[in-house]
Amino acid sequence: MDWGMKNRLAKLMPNGKCFFMPVDHGYFLGPTSKLEKPGETIKPLLPYVDALFMTRGVLRNCVEPENTKPIILRVSGGNSIIGDNLSNEEITTSIQEVLRLNAQAVGFSIYVGAKYEHQTLMNFSKLVNECQEYGIPVMGVTAVGKELEKRDARYLGLCSRIAAELGASVVKTYWCEDFDKVVEGCPVPVVIAGGPKCETEKEVFEFVHDGMQKGAVGINLGRNVWQHAHPVAMAAALQAIIHKDATVKEAQDIFDKSK
């Protein structure tokens, strides 16, 4: 691995751990609740996160270039929540654009088992090839579209391994029962996706803590933070689990005090 790639990954994952915050939902969901004005949503959470995951449009128009965090650029798209198939994605952003925006990494969704599986896997491989030329890490996102029942260890382990085999520097996937099997079968770092908003903050702390204990290097959580009634308290508690090895109880105490 070249120095540039190592340096970018070190900035994204200080001490080998990470709290990524995705605010890229609008690329297929439109103005998601609590994300109508992304810049305002992000601002109070910046002290707690290691990087932001977003599209170039939101980056250019909603994020100040000063005093921000490293950027992971969402570079897949071409679908919408009302379209026929969420897996029908292509590469949306050139490597030149990634460099112009000074992104530390890029993120791309693969849809294993979906109608456009081959298309997304081949485009992912093409993206890795281009990014390797410039030392840009690629995060493989194991997307499941609307089929939430796919979130088991066997399926997510398959998706994560394929992303790693095709050259991902890091893989974003969902927590599941037997999550250690997913991590053990993936030769690159794994970060936990958040998915739909949980009913309580304790549920979030429990699956994040379990995932970290089973080998994940961090999280990529959005809706369970910025859609919460107390987003800053959520961010503070999750940061403690990721970077301070806090237990679920300790995270709950931090949340209760912070809110």
Write a concise keyword list for the protein shown above:
single chain; 259 residues; alpha/beta; TIM Barrel; eight-stranded parallel beta barrel; 12 helices; 10 strands
Sheet having the most strands: 8 strands, parallel, barrel
Uncertain residue ranges: none
General shape: globular
Judged by helices, strands and strand pairing, the structural class is: alpha/beta
Helix/strand order: HEHHEHEEEHEHEHEHEHEHHH
Count of helical segments?
12
Overall number of structural domains: 1
Strand content: 15-25%
Radius of gyration from the CA trace?
Answer: 17 Å
> Mean pLDDT across all residues, rounded?
95
Characterization of this structure:
With 259 residues, this protein is of the alpha/beta class. The chain has a single domain (3-231), classed as Alpha-Beta Barrel (TIM Barrel), CATH 3.20.20. It has twelve helices and ten strands. The strands form two sheets. An eight-stranded parallel beta barrel has the order 1-2-3-6-7-8-9-10, surrounded by six helices. It has a two-stranded antiparallel ribbon with strand order 4-5. The radius of gyration is 17 Å and the shape is globular. The model has no long low-confidence stretch (mean pLDDT 95).
